[in-house]
């Protein structure tokens, strides 16, 4: 008896939603992948849970950092073909797994009605601890709970339907970035300049990095090699979870 073949991600979806903790999270891990989706005609929405006001590497006043980072994320999104960027405004560095956060993410899932959701892995990467910021893991777990069961259950957060008219919606697949179980790679070699344009929009976060392109290129080359791309090709890696 042969074991069943693993399910592959859909070749194309009409709508995708990317849910990340901070401005720039989507660009470091996934901007190349997003560029391939928008080029193929997928409508992509970004949902950023915080304004990133606890980030930065200079003496920018804290009250200015949040608005700056929102503007940077909007510019970065445009570089890869995304115009719908939404922010929840939760406190940077202090995210907790709460029903309020699950409801807020469920609301946007029901609004956007995506077939695919991209978010961060809720699992810690022990060999690359920087990928496992507590906010990242909290957003990943909250998003998975919003995908299943909240957004698809008409009786979960009934106020979303009763007060806002948002019908239940079932997401078919979730892509987890920075996962220790990554099993899918996207070849982003041909769109890497768009990824770099997105990253360079985040001036408050990368202006102190002289070797940004070299560092990110080497990182993606290693990812491609590890997950089976031809030599020299650049990859972004995900764990794909089928949720329908």
TrEMBL record:
Report the InterPro entries cross-referenced here: GlcNAc_PI_deacetylase-related, LmbE-like_dom_sf
Q: Which residues form the signal peptide?
A: none
What organism, scientifically named, is this protein from?
Geodermatophilus obscurus (strain ATCC 25078 / DSM 43160 / JCM 3152 / CCUG 61914 / KCC A-0152 / KCTC 9177 / NBRC 13315 / NRRL B-3577 / G-20)
What is any one GO biological process for this UniProt entry? Answer: glycoside metabolic process
Query: Which keywords does the record carry?
Result: Zinc
Q: Name one GO molecular function term.
A: hydrolase activity, acting on carbon-nitrogen (but not peptide) bonds, in linear amides
The record, for PANTHER family, names: LMBE FAMILY PROTEIN, N-ACETYLGLUCOSAMINYL-PHOSPHATIDYLINOSITOL DE-N-ACETYLASE-RELATED
- The name under which this protein is listed is LmbE family protein
Q: Which residues form a coiled coil?
A: none
Q: Which domain of life is it from?
A: Bacteria
Q: Which Pfam families match?
A: PIG-L (PF02585)
């Amino acid at each position: 008896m042969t074991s069943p073949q693993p399910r592959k991600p859909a070749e194309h979806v009409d709508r995708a939603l990317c849910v990340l903790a901070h401005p720039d999270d989507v660009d470091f891990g996934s901007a190349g992948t997003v560029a391939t989706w928008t080029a193929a005609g997928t409508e992509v929405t970004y949902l950023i849970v915080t304004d990133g006001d606890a980030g930065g590497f200079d003496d920018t006043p804290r009250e200015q950092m949040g608005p700056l980072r929102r503007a940077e994320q909007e510019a970065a999104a445009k570089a890869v073909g995304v115009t719908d960027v939404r922010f929840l405004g939760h406190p940077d560095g202090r995210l907790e797994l709460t029903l309020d956060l699950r409801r807020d993410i469920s609301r946007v899932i029901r609004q956007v009605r995506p077939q695919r959701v991209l978010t961060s892995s809720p699992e810690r990467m022990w060999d690359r601890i920087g990928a496992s910021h507590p906010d990242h893991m909290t957003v990943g777990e909250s998003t998975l709970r919003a995908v299943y069961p909240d957004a698809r259950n008409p009786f979960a957060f009934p106020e979303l339907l009763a007060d806002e008219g948002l019908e239940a919606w079932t997401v078919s697949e979730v892509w987890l970035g920075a996962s220790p179980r990554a099993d899918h790679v996207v070849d982003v070699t041909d769109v890497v300049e768009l990824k770099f344009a997105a990253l360079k929009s985040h001036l408050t976060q990368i202006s102190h990095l002289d070797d940004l392109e070299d560092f990110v290129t080497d990182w993606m080359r290693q990812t491609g090699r590890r997950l089976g791309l031809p030599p020299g090709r650049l990859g972004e890696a995900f764990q794909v979870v089928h949720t329908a």
